[in-house]
């Protein structure tokens, strides 16, 4: 039967362990189906994704990925087929539920690609082990347990240490190492909160972790597309490890025997499409264990796809429709078959990025459960070049493996401890170990990292030592400079070595001098193409990287000023994620439509913007001054766009401008004036626009003097920040002293900005596009929470739900003044405070903001397309915004990944904490909010609600909602103060005792025994130093997977929504029906 109508399940909001890679794979799959004339229906509440854009899927539903909603979409749309492998673990679990509930059979839906039976066999740890044992393939010694007693007895049988894993989860959720029974009890009790099936497994300490990406079709044609090796041994989750492709330390025999096993497994599981097989390999013999099989597209397959240039998701979607590998063309080269194994003549490094400093109380230890929020992929002619490029791509202020200005540990004992117990700083401790004279043999025995990798790191270190022997870079032998560049040293890295000897130099000038010097010596990088064929056959691709391991460019440059460069968003981190990739992809599409060549510079393997068919040329490269200048000098473009990729391109603007690079759109001088808070504030004073009082201060006396003027609470932050890095609300003297002691060092060079904090103020945002200072189109949205919750964490409502017309008019008037003053041409965002109808400006960004995809999709008007046309110089007319007449509502809610971050306090403040977002649409605010909250994991409580109401203002704020809950029949549990407050107001509640009180109805026991359906815990203040009792309640709620609300405004809105509407009343409407 020919399949004409297919349902695809997305992965929802980005979270730790399940991030942007599924936007990339889902987008590719939808394009592949469209090419075959298949009508596609997509369910994905992640409104910021590329796959939920117009012209990708035929129908898009911004609905929660739960059985209830999927079932109703199926009933309405009646698809003939369903694809489950392109939406991560979320889609796979939904598919298994659909099958188990009989919905697949009832509606006669064909599961395309790998069968449900095979998916269940790969996910269920018991079935998985039995199936592999049946075909004589070794797995780690393990037992599936359903109770704590079983876990203890089987662990004793295997012998400690053991590793704990949860079935049907992603990114090692609920997993951990247990060295003894106490460890085991802690980990297993949490693991049961995420899965009914927990595995106790032998710990293969020091074994290598190897992965193969296998593709198979229905005719049993089977190939290995890519093999990858983890730099770190077993015990560190592959998502937390540096991963290298192709593998570097395997013998020929090891490589081929594991490849053979991976293909054998794919055949036995009847994989149709793609799967990932992970092995543990004993470094001292050829003994192995199969760790797991992912019968779907994964983080590793996104990496393999980008590393090889083989479009895995595109091919997997075609195979799911019934094509054979021999029938498909390689869509990258256009002239070879897809039935071949790619060859690599370069080395790829994937390196994770962590943002653990954003969380209070979190451990920086890394292990079997994922904590990283993003990853980079670097391509080089050698491991050293690739690794150093990759470290710079992380955008954490490190210049590569060698960092001259990094503070070093003073204690060798402590350093060895860190090598033994890995943290997010592991790669930098390895450099410190070499600096401290620890041998690579000893480092190997402490870390179990393969000696080959350590010797490559030592090569880099020895080159640095040789460079350090010279007093001036002009004295460097040409061969040594060439060697350094081949090993990935950047100009600024080399400049730092010499700057350390003579601090009278300006380091930026020194970097520029080194650049000019090596160009004179013809030490320059060359452009190579990834053609999947290791250059064995002539092929032209648009997929490029730069390396010093080449002697000529692979492509010819036109230099006709018809190309436009767009700088991408780089690594995903908290504060910069898939929404900026959506902006970049839409900019590239518009550049193409306007008949220019689109050039993309980006290095994130999870993105759609780094896909082979999105632009005319893709440079998989660093977004650093050195590399961007290299590319601009080769391309000679019409200009460069810096306003689509978030803060990374913004931070380069002035440096590029100083190098005479043509920046398209708003002037770099204006961008700098807005980014610099001092200059921006002066501009606001000049325009007579109100702003909260603030001062830039560099000594303690003036800080204390200013606080006397404005009083607590205050907002403190360094200048030039994205997503509230190191920003805090300080409520009293004690907290201020802690912040100044622990968080920042202040000086005239690094002053601190202190701003009065206005309590209970509404926060409002304007996203707009201007041309030569005139606003062409705008969208105004409001936050549900009061100011004090970072705009990236806040719940956003568009069109605004609760604003006076006079407030809107004032906001538009102020925005027009700002636009005119800075002569804006392109996208921008302004954030406002409103209290008692007085409007103050708190921030402005002369670039696309993270809310652009949300407001564009809700309003059905693509603001990035308009912004790009303006940036390219096309004259556009003013467009009247339609939000005054929109008769529906969009709500953007934030996704938090606190369950992954052991011990982190799940509290919201001015420092951004969310890892992703969703956006849902409803006929009313209540409907849109309820859909959004369910989409980020909240459930409507069945019976029991715990309230710990915080300060008296919050209790009063929530009083009407408490009455409503009681009226609707909910049983209220309350901590001591809240219990007496409710009693005083005639609302019955059951008193529960604080965690430190040993009584029967201790709140922690109620949480552990899953007696509560919703926990509302409002912190006493906005600071990070919270009382232990409140912290314990919040942390337990997360650890035992119970919905938690810590903001009174959001709690009010959520309670109103689920009391006013039942889930059954939520409408099943596609995006185009609004």
From TrEMBL:
InterPro entries the UniProt entry points to: ATP-grasp, ATP_grasp_subdomain_1, CarbamoylP_synth_lsu_oligo_sf, CPAse_ATP-bd, CPSase_dom, CPSase_lsu, CPSase_lsu_oligo, CPSase_preATP-grasp
Q: Name one GO molecular function term.
A: metal ion binding
Q: Which Gene3D superfamilies match?
A: 3.40.50.20, ATP-grasp fold, A domain (3.30.1490.20), ATP-grasp fold, B domain (3.30.470.20), Carbamoyl-phosphate synthetase, large subunit oligomerisation domain (1.10.1030.10), Methylglyoxal synthase-like domain (3.40.50.1380)
Please provide one cellular component term from the Gene Ontology annotations of this protein: cytoplasm
Q: Does the keyword Transcription regulation apply?
A: no
| Reaction catalysis annotation | hydrogencarbonate + NH4(+) + 2 ATP = carbamoyl phosphate + 2 ADP + phosphate + 2 H(+)
Q: SUPFAM superfamilies given for it?
A: Carbamoyl phosphate synthetase, large subunit connection domain, Glutathione synthetase ATP-binding domain-like, Methylglyoxal synthase-like, PreATP-grasp domain
Q: Domain ATP-grasp spans what residues?
A: 129-321, 681-872
Q: What keywords are annotated for this sequence in UniProt?
A: Amino-acid biosynthesis, Arginine biosynthesis, ATP-binding, Ligase, Magnesium, Manganese, Metal-binding, Nucleotide-binding, Pyrimidine biosynthesis, Repeat
Its pathway, per UniProt, is: Amino-acid biosynthesis; L-arginine biosynthesis
Residues of the MGS-like domain: 938-1074
Q: Does Flavoprotein count among this protein's keywords? A: no
Cofactors that this protein relies on: Mn(2+)
One GO term (biological process): glutamine metabolic process
* Record family assignment: Belongs to the CarB family.
Q: Which PANTHER family does the entry mention?
A: CARBAMOYL-PHOSPHATE SYNTHASE [AMMONIA], MITOCHONDRIAL, CARBAMOYLTRANSFERASE FAMILY MEMBER
Which named protein is this? Carbamoyl-phosphate synthate large chain
> Per the UniProt entry, what species is this protein from, by scientific name?
Blattabacterium sp.
Q: Which lineage?
A: Bacteria, Pseudomonadati, Bacteroidota, Flavobacteriia, Flavobacteriales
């Amino acid at each position: 039967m020919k399949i004409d109508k297919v349902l695809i399940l997305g992965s929802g909001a980005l979270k730790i362990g399940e991030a942007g890679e599924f936007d990339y794979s889902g987008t590719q799959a939808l394009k592949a189906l469209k090419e075959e004339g298949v009508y596609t229906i997509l369910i994905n509440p992640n409104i910021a994704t590329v796959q939920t854009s117009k012209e990708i899927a035929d129908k898009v539903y911004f609905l929660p990925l739960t059985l209830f909603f999927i079932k109703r979409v199926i009933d309405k749309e009646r698809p003939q087929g369903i694809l489950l492998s392109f939406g991560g673990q979320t889609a796979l679990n939904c598919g298994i539920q659909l099958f188990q509930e009989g919905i697949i059979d009832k509606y006669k839906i064909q599961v395309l690609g790998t069968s449900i039976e095979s998916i269940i066999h790969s996910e269920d740890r018991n079935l998985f082990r039995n199936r592999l044992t049946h075909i004589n393939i070794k797995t780690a010694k393990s037992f599936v347990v359903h109770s704590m007693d079983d876990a203890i007895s089987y662990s004793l049988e295997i012998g400690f240490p053991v590793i704990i894993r949860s079935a049907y989860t992603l990114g090692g959720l609920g997993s951990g190492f247990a060295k003894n029974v106490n460890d085991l009890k802690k980990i297993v009790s949490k693991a049961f909160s995420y899965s009914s099936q927990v595995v106790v497994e032998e710990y293969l300490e020091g074994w290598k972790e190897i992965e193969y990406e296998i593709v198979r079709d229905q005719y049993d044609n089977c190939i290995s597309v890519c093999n990858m090796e983890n730099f770190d041994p077993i015990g560190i989750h592959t998502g937390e490890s540096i991963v290298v492709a192709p593998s570097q330390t395997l013998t020929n025999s090891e490589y081929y025997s594991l490849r053979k096993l991976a293909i054998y497994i794919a055949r036995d599981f009847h994989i149709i499409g793609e799967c990932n097989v992970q092995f543990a390999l004993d470094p001292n013999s050829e003994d192995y264990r199969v760790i797991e099989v992912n019968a779907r597209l994964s983080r590793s397959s996104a990496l393999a796809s980008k590393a090889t240039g083989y479009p895995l998701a595109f091919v997997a979607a075609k195979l799911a429709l019934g094509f054979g590998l021999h029938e498909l063309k390689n869509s990258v080269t256009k002239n070879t078959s897809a039935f071949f194994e790619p060859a690599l003549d370069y080395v790829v490094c994937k390196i994770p990025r962590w943002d653990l400093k954003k969380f209070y109380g979190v451990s920086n230890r890394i292990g079997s459960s994922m904590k990283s929020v993003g990853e980079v992929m670097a391509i080089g002619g050698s491991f050293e070049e690739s690794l150093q490029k990759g470290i710079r791509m992380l955008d954490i202020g490190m210049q590569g493996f060698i960092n001259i200005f990094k503070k070093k540990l003073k204690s060798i004992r402590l350093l060895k401890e860190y090598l033994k117990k890995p943290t997010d700083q592991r790669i930098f401790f390895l450099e410190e170990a070499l600096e401290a004279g620890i041998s690579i043999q000893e480092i190997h025995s402490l870390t179990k990292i393969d000696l080959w990798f350590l010797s490559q790191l030592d090569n880099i270190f020895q080159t640095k030592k040789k460079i350090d022997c010279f007093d001036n870079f002009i004295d460097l032998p040409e061969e040594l400079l060439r060697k350094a560049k081949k090993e990935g040293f950047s100009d600024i890295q080399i400049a730092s070595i010499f700057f350390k000897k003579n601090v009278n130099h300006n380091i930026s000038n020194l970097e520029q001098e080194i650049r000019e010097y090596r160009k004179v010596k013809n030490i320059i990088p060359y452009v190579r193409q990834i053609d999947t064929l290791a250059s064995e056959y002539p092929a032209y691709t648009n997929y490029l990287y730069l390396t010093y391991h080449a002697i000529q460019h692979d492509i010819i440059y036109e230099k006709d000023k018809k190309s436009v460069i767009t700088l991408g968003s780089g690594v995903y981190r908290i504060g910069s994620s898939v929404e900026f990739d959506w902006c970049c992809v839409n900019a590239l599409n518009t550049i193409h439509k306007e008949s220019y060549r689109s050039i993309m510079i980006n290095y994130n393997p999870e993105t759609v913007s780094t896909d082979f068919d999105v632009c005319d040329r893709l440079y998989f490269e660093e977004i650093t001054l050195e590399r961007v200048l290299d590319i601009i000098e080769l391309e000679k473009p019409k200009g460069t766009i810096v306003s689509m990729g978030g803060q990374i391109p913004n931070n380069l603007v002035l440096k590029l401008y100083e190098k005479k690079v043509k920046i398209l759109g708003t002037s770099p001088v204006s961008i700098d004036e807005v980014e610099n808070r001092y200059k921006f504030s002066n501009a606001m004073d000049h325009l007579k626009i109100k702003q909260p009082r603030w001062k830039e201060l560099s000594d303690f006396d003036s800080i204390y003097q200013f606080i006397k003027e404005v009083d607590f609470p205050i907002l403190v932050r360094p200048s030039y920040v994205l997503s509230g890095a190191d920003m805090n609300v300080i409520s009293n003297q004690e907290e201020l002293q802690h912040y100044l002691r622990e968080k920042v060092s202040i000086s005239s060079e690094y002053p601190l900005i202190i701003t009065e904090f206005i309590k209970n103020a509404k926060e409002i945002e304007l996203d707009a596009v201007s041309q030569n200072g005139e606003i062409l189109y705008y969208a105004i949205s409001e936050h549900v929470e009061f100011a004090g919750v970072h705009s990236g964490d806040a719940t956003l409502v568009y069109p605004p739900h609760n604003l006076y017309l006079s407030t809107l008019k004032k906001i538009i008037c102020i925005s027009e003044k700002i636009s005119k003053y800075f002569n804006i041409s392109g996208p921008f965002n302004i954030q406002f405070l409103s209290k008692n109808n007085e409007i103050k400006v708190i921030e402005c960004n002369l670039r696309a903001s993270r809310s652009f995809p949300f407001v564009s999709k809700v309003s059905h008007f693509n603001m990035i397309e308009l912004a790009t046309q303006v940036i390219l110089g096309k004259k556009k007319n003013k467009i009247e915004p339609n939000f005054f007449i929109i008769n529906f509502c969009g709500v953007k809610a934030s996704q938090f990944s606190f369950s992954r971050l052991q011990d982190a306090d799940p509290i919201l403040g001015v420092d951004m904490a969310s890892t992703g977002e969703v956006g849902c649409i409803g006929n009313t605010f209540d409907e849109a909010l309820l859909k959004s909250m369910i989409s980020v994991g909240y459930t409507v409580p069945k019976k029991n609600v715990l309230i710990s109401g915080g300060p008296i203002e919050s209790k009063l704020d929530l009083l009407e909602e408490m009455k409503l809950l009681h009226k609707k029949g909910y049983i209220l549990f309350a901590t001591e103060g809240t219990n007496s407050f409710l009693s005083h107001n005639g609302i019955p509640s059951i008193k529960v005792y604080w965690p430190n009180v040993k009584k029967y109805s201790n709140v922690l026991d109620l949480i552990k025994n899953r007696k509560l359906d919703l926990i509302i815990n409002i912190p006493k203040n906005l600071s990070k130093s919270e009382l232990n009792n409140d912290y314990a309640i919040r942390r337990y709620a997360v650890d035992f997977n119970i919905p938690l609300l810590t903001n009174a405004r959001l709690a009010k809105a959520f309670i109103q929504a689920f009391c006013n509407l039942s889930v059954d009343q939520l409408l099943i409407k596609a995006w185009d029906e609004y």
